[in-house]
Amino acid sequence: MTSDPILERYRQELARRLVGRQMATKELTGGFAHLLADPFQPIEDRAALQDEVDVAIVGGGLAGLLVAVRLREAGVERIRVIDRAGSFGGTWYWNRYPGAMCDIESYIYLPLLEEMGYVPKHKYSYAPEIYEYLQSVADRYDLRDDALFHTGVEQARWVDGTQSWVITTDRGDEFESQFLCLAVGFLTQPKIPDIDGLESFRGHCFHTSRWDYAYTGGDASHELTGLGDNVVGIIGTAASAVQCIPWLARSAKQLYVFQRTPSTVSERDNRLTDSAWAASLKPGWQRERMINFTTHCAGLPDPGADLVNDGWTNVVRRAILYPDENIEVMERIRKRVEATVADARTAEFLKPYYAYLCTRPCFHDEYLETFNRPNVEVIECPLGIDRMAQDGPVIDGTTYPVDCLIFATGFQGPEWKIESLTGIVGRGGVSLTTKWADGIQSLHGLMTHGFPNLLIQPGPLEQSTGTFNHTHVMVENAGHLAYIVAEMRRRGHRCFDVSVAAEADWVRQIVGSPPEPYGKDGQISCTPSRLNYVGRETGPNPRNGIYGGIGGPLDYFAILADWRTEGNLAGLEFDPVLSAAQ
User: Fold this and answer.
1) Tens of pLDDT along 531-546?
2) Judging by DSSP bridges, how do beta strands 174-182 and 164-169 pair with one another?
């Protein structure tokens, strides 16, 4: 088939989503503050702490856990993890909606499997198993006793006199730490659309990352028995919605799915782990598998045998390397919708018309079939919901009365994360938000000048690297950060800072890296999404990119490995330089 007619359809669908207002987000304060509350675990009273630790880690998800584990292995004793959640887990603490599961193969997504002697139960693990596994990691490495949960860092200020960080929290704590590690994730703050009249809605509402089982009944593994007489509306059709919509459809009297843009939904083909295969695994198998997956998905040459062999490695590689095949991939996805969804009008609503990877791909074995149920209706609203009435959403003059409204609308993006770092205050009273106001400045994405002993677990687009399996990046970076701490202790250094020259050189390399394949001016039409700048007034900040573009993760890992092998901690300045500046 020729590409021109399809690209024209892509452009038409894009235009439908760019006319009029774009989707602003609602401040989750006042009457909407409850959407951030923890529905899973009560906040317990405790005494405020005033003490000292070696390393304070802000964030108890995968990123923070990995740094803590590697530090523990390096002999660091006093490690304190701080998190607003009620326990470890990060996204897997919060995302307990029914049907939640990882969309990257669990054998490479769950870290430390060899260290823990564990093999996941399914090729793609469900949320309860992931959550329990992460609890077991924290317990194995003795990280729980010193942790502070349901606690937010109000300020972390570097003090030259003591060469340490002074950290204050919203629970009255004030303590010192030699090192501070930011492992705050990149999709952590729930967002909801700022719909006109939203305050007037009289029904129940919650965000998928704060699932209200007290209202819906059931749990992440059992049917939602409280919805039998309820009309439910869900706003959003991306990853979390794709996973929970089949559960809602089986339980609710009526389900309205409010869709701005359909997702690409391919087969998941989830299955139980083969016990014989698990028994055959040799030492080093997880790292080998991670590298193999990243090699395939980055479109690198000669990737060798496909060890993971799933939708990512079979489809993503071809879509990246061959633009014409990108179109064929999307056509197969649309044909799957057509073959699965009985009603032609509904099927047309669910067909995605944009380039593959303009949004994060979804994989699911039940989602499309759900729209064959008589109690499920997709409501197309490419410009979002017009306004909210007391009874429910209003679109094109039609009100859809609902008892419960669920926001499957995702999380604030990287811009919000940088704005949230005002409490991280380095030398001279400069906040990290201020320093990064015009773009990130760092060495390897892991350290930044003017903020001594600050260790960073970066997210995508934060001067590190990017893969579809971000766990791989976190594993590599955690080992590197722990190496720095261990070497400083071995060499007798109290603190370090990044040299101005080393930081400037790394920023130049990031700015010179290849752009992402579907940016603001991409040749293949994209729909607006978190992954691109289509429809935004400004394009991507070149400083907030990744090393080597989409094909550079293994090169980035090699740079870190070579830096450690050379052993001279290039680009870091130690105690004498810092002391002279006091």
Assistant:
1) 777 777 777 888 998 9
2) antiparallel
Structure tokens at 437: 């106001």
Instruction: Give the pLDDT score at 517.
Output: 55
With contact defined as beta carbons under 8 Å apart, do 440 and 503 qualify? no
Residue where the block lists tokens 């006042």: 30
pLDDT band at 32, cuts 50/70/90? confident
97 burial level (CB within 10 Å; 0-12, 13-18, 19+): buried
Parallel, antiparallel, or unpaired: how do β-strands 52-58 and 79-82 relate?
parallel
- The pLDDT score that the predictor gives to residue 519 is 46
Question: Tokens at residue 248, please?
Answer: 């809602």
Question: So what's the pLDDT on residue 113?
Answer: 98
Do 167 and 56 touch, CB atoms closer than 8 A? Answer: yes
pLDDT for 151 beyond 90: yes
The residues near 190 (Cβ < 8 Å, ≥ 6 apart) are 28, 35, 36, 207, 209, 210, 407, 409, 410, 411, 412
Q: Range with the lowest mean pLDDT among 129-143, 281-295, 316-330, 390-404?
A: 316-330
Q: What is the DSSP letter of 122?
A: B
Please report the DSSP string for 326-373 in residue order. Answer: HHHHHHHHHHHHHHH-SSHHHHHHH---S-TTSS--EE-SSHHHHTTS
How does strand 52-58 pair with strand 174-182?
Answer: parallel
What structural domains and CATH numbers belong to the chain?
4-37+192-268+348-407 (3.50.50.60), 52-88+143-189+413-514+537-580 (3.50.50.60)
Q: In Å, how far from its chain's centre is CA 116?
A: 24
Q: What is the pLDDT of residue 515?
A: 66
Environment class of 271 (CB within 10 Å of its CB; exposed 0-12, middle 13-18, buried 19+): exposed
Paired tokens of 17? 């989503």
Q: What is the pTM of this model?
A: 0.94
Cα angle 154, 158, 162; round to 5: 125
Identify the H or E element spanning 166.
strand 164-169
Residue 259 is encoded by which pair of tokens?
């869709």
d(CA 165, CA 148): 17
Cβ atoms of 193 and 409 within 8 Å: the answer is yes
**Which pLDDT belongs to residue 187?**
76
**Who contacts 431 (Cβ-Cβ below 8 Å, separation ≥6)?**
421, 422, 423, 424, 425
pLDDT at 325 exceeding the cut of 90:
no
d(CA 114, CA 285): 8
Strands 153-159 and 164-169, by their bridges, are antiparallel
Are the C-beta atoms of 308 and 108 separated by less than 8 Å?
yes
Residue type, position 356, single letter:
Y
Cβ atoms of 188 and 175 closer than 8 Å:
no
**pLDDT, tens only, 154-176:** 999 999 999 999 999 999 999 99
Give the position of tokens 């939708």.
311
